Amino acid sequence: xxxxxxxxxxxxxxxxxxxxxxxxxxxxxxxxxxxxxxxxxxxxxxxxxxxxxxxxxxxxxxxxxxxxxxxxxxxxxxxxxxxxxxxxxxxxxxx
Length: 95
What we know:
mainly alpha; 3 helices
């Protein structure tokens, strides 16, 4: 599965989860007095489990597809020094 497909799937999962949360809220708000405690607890538990699954999936997708490979600290320092030197040259040209 390509990154764009995975991101779309994740977006769709988030939308479905948000719709479920809204429906659960409305159900409690409109019919809370007739729902037994076990039903409300089950609803809350299902929403919580879905939130965790989506969050875990989102984290895994981000780790696998969005993070660049690790760059050694020494290489980052050299890149930073080169950028500073480049900026100094640019400032000299402007002066």
